Amino acid sequence: MAELPLIGEGAPRIDGRLKVTGDARYAADFSVPNPAYAQLVTSTIARGRIVSLDASEAGKVPGVLKVYTHENAPKIEGVPFFGKGGQAYQGFRPLQGVEIKHEGQIIALVVAETLEAAREAAFRVKATYEPQTPAATFGDGGTETEVAAEISKQHTDPKTGDADAALKDAAHVVEAEYETATNHHNAMELYSTTAHWTGDHLTIYEPSQWVYGLRAGVAGELGIPQDKVRVLSPFTGGAFGSKGTVTARSALTAAAARALNRPVKLLVTRAQGYTTASYRAETKHRIRLGADGDGTFVGFVHEGFELTSRPDTFLVSGTESTVRMYGFKNVRTKVSAVRADRNTPGFMRSPAEVPYMFALESAVDELAWKIGMDPIELRLKNDTKTDPITGKPFTTRQVRACFERAKELFGWDRRVAKVGAMRADGELVGYGAALACYPTQLAPAAVRLTLEGKGRARVQIAAHDIGTGTYTVLAQAAAGLLGVALDRVEVELGDTNLPAGPISGGSVATASSVSAIMKAAEAIRLRLATAATTSNDGPLAGKDKESVVLKDGRLVAEDGTGEDLTDAFKRLGVGTVEEYAEWLPDGVDEKAMRGLYNGSVKIVGGPMQDRTQFSFGAELVEVRVNPRTLSIRVPRMVGVFASGRIMNRMTAGSQVLGGMVWGVGSALHEQTEIDRRYARYVNDNIAEYLVPVNADIVHQEIEFLEEDDGEVNLAGVKGLGELGNVGTNAAVANAVYHATGFRARKIPIRIEDVLKSHLV
Amino acid sequence: MLPFAYEKPKSLDDAVKALADEGAVPIAGGTTMIDLMKLYVLQPPKLVDIGGLPGLGEIEETDDAVVFGALVRMADAAEHPLLKSDYPALSEALWLAASPQIRNMATLGGNVLQRTRCPYFRDTSYRCNRRVPGSGCDAIGGINRLHAVLGTSETCIASYPGDWAVALAAFDTEVDAVSRAGKRTIAFADLHLRPDDHPERVHALKEGEVITHVRVKKTPLGKASTYYKVRDRESYAFALASVAAALVMDGETVKDVRLGLGGVASVPWRAREAEDGLKGQELTPETARRAGETAFRDARTYDHNAFKVPLGVETVVEALMSAKTRA
Fold this sequence. Notes:
The structure holds two protein chains of two kinds.
Chain A: H1 16-20, E1 36-42, E2 48-54, H2 56-60, E3 64-69, E4 99-100, E5 106-112, H3 115-124, E6 126-131, E7 144-147, H4 148-151, H5 163-168, E8 172-180, E9 192-198, E10 201-205, H6 211-222, E11 229-232, H7 248-260, E12 264-267, H8 270-276, E13 283-291, E14 297-309, H9 319-322, E15 331-340, H10 353-371, H11 375-381, H12 399-410, E16 422-424, E17 427-439, E18 441-442, E19 445-452, E20 457-460, H13 470-482, E21 489-492, H14 509-534, E22 549-551, E23 554-556, E24 562-564, H15 565-572, E25 576-583, H16 591-597, E26 604-607, E27 612-625, E28 632-642, H17 649-668, E29 674-675, E30 680-681, E31 697-704, H18 728-740, E32 746-747, H19 751-759
Parallel strand pairs in A: 1-12, 8-32, 10-11, 14-15, 20-21, 28-31
Antiparallel strand pairs in A: 1-5, 2-4, 2-6, 3-5, 7-15, 8-13, 9-10, 9-12, 13-14, 16-17, 17-27, 18-26, 19-20, 19-25, 22-23, 23-24, 26-27, 27-28, 29-30
Helix pairs in contact in A: 6-7, 10-18, 13-14, 14-15, 17-18
Chain B: E1 5-7, H1 12-19, E2 24-27, H2 33-38, E3 46-49, E4 59-61, E5 65-69, H3 74-78, H4 81-86, H5 88-95, H6 100-105, H7 108-112, H8 164-170, E6 173-179, E7 182-187, H9 188-191, E8 210-217, E9 224-230, E10 241-250, E11 253-262, E12 269-270, H10 272-278, H11 285-295, H12 308-324
Parallel strand pairs in B: 1-3, 2-3
Antiparallel strand pairs in B: 4-5, 5-8, 6-7, 6-8, 9-10, 10-11, 11-12
Helix pairs in contact in B: 5-8, 10-11, 11-12
């Protein structure tokens, strides 16, 4: 088979033109005949009961067709919570009773002739509640803390040796608590659902990271067969984990469309998106990290506390990653769930690693200062070739090479190893470093690949392009493997009429989809090669079929002899060859393929039976701090990553570059403010929920190291969508310490925190 | 948004007539009005679109004043050569406000009347004395990191969020307004009302009255002026603390000085006592810091905004030392 390069060409996005001209069709852009428009009404209390819902004024708004409340809403069966093997964002179903479990819970659905009428009517629905005092977050009366290992089948607490004993004898120990804030995804594209029935067949247009899951979820909730539902999501305008699971709105919209006998388009406002879909919950960490006199780690204890809702146990369990980062000899971990009256949290880009690695990578920096060692040296001293928990080897692990190259690009040697000792333009300068990582995960995938004699190819897979470049990298894979030009490849995604692709989550999409494409491409090659080599005449007659590859629009043998595709197809007597292929990751049995079609997720990776697989990176950050106001800015960042085969250096570069920007947001900006009296989100809009802007980060440099990993999967691809924003928050916090002496153990770092430390 | 009547008069006279209708409000750039209407915080029955009125879109220089038409766009004023050379604080305050898109839409007259960003004011499900008089204040005891520490009352702690008005407050500024009752001139210091017992009254304009011009009296203070803004991110964020500083120096000694404070007060804030204390003093970081401390002496802080006092003091120092480099 033709070889794909280790670092693929930086081909511009094949859908770029569609996007910049507005021709890319996002879910809410699809026009349906005679649509009605729907609007949600959401609760203004977080806990209690609805006493009454008065829709009389709403009903008087001209153009209103229907107001659904708990009294007349369609019955929704409810599919299981994602964390319990289902598809649902949360286990609790709104609009099925009077109980309020969280702020912003759906309490009515208004359908009208126009969006304007629906919005006005929604405002005029008046709810009366019998409120109860809610518990908002950690430390509030009424929260319940449970040990994860006791309540969750999926969770185990990784451990090895006797960490507590080892720490007793350690020469240097850091013992600290760290906190991360509540974050919301705030994808540019708002949530929406369009439901269109034709007879007993339903079409759903919805921005999605998992169209087969959405199909299964909606079918399950409506009690109809899955094959009666088609889901379309060809483009998704940002998702970051928020559009993976099935929220309550989808089936409600479909049920309303069925009852009203016309298509219904539901648009969710920015604020409603904060409470009717998922988010990254706040976390707390207790870390103990010890080293002997020369900096060799001897023990590591990581205890995590994660906020979750009353009905659902959602855990990210990031200790699974932190314990594998260094050669810890002794490890003890424990994760606890803390229940409060909140909507259920969910996946948000690098769900486990962003909060947990902040704690670890901050503690490593603290320990380096304590020992008096360069923080990168300390990391490299404790690099490991084997997983400290399982004892199995890492497939590839270029931590040292990443740091060495990053140091060079950054000019780390200029670092003065003293707090507050570096200045430029009257400002305090700080350098910070952190390790980035992400487990290499995979999921089953099926694909249909077509090659025409005229040299055109088509890839069909219900994978998703959530802004990541999936269209482009899958086209590159097909082009490279089938030996045709990139602009001759057409890619179809995001449609349940296509072969089932993986959920776009856990950074599985490229690795899994390309592996499936490789299987299909090999089948196409074999058909053409077999025909050409077993034929009685032609330039390839009698050659070894295994030596024949598709290249530059030709079928060629190793010695360069060959024939044009058109001739090869003529011999076969067809104009088109089409192959359907299913690919399963190592250790996944065939039932998982049926599961993929039925909306059940199987993701494997990280620690495996015989090996452990991760992507790694080194992130170095410079901060500048105004010595009077102590405001913090990031003039430059360097990221060097090793992540297996890179399909496209440009789209991959954009992913990790954007990831690091997000990492700065995590460190300095992003925080959903919660009014603890009411357990309500206060800054639920993108004017007040801050993310970094261009002016915040002046210069970024990204580099990928070549990495040939034949073990992780057929394609040698390690996912990197979630690699870039891991560790950045700690690198910023570590740089802030270097500049100011203020150790930020809570993020985002706010100006008041630094001020306070300087005033004391 | 609720349905509303819309009228687009061709002349200022017609606009004034149209604004005399009950509940009618003017709209120009719409960057605050439309936003708050979509949130149902404002529910005007009638909008009078003054955006296209002739004669209010110029910046003119008279013998003793710089006169801004109320319909000049923020972006245009920010780039005006006279402001950049002689009143940099006025240009910088506009540059550091909002985003390019908003600056291209928003007009100066509307900008000075920008409403607070208090989240409890902007969400009708909360208690807010400013929105519903007598209903209570959820910001007190709530999330009040961005709220005011100066000029608040028991009824309201919302901060004035704008930038340009803070710079205007540092100079001798007046606004011209017109209504059916005729024209009048209001001192800028009297335009914004502190909440006191009536936080629902945010400005001194009467029903149906509209700003036509903003006039800044010419002053040698303009040259050595600056607007310094501290915020959570580098662009498109409201001030945590901001200071408009203007100086006339006699060697190292302060001959005259003006200080406007933003992000920390219920209205665009002039720190007169701090100014008085500086006059005749040598300007050093230490004397500047004392002025800052004077400016915030009467600050009253809440759960999350106590940092605005030390931050505000340091911002005064930054602004004064920066203005001094221009003197």
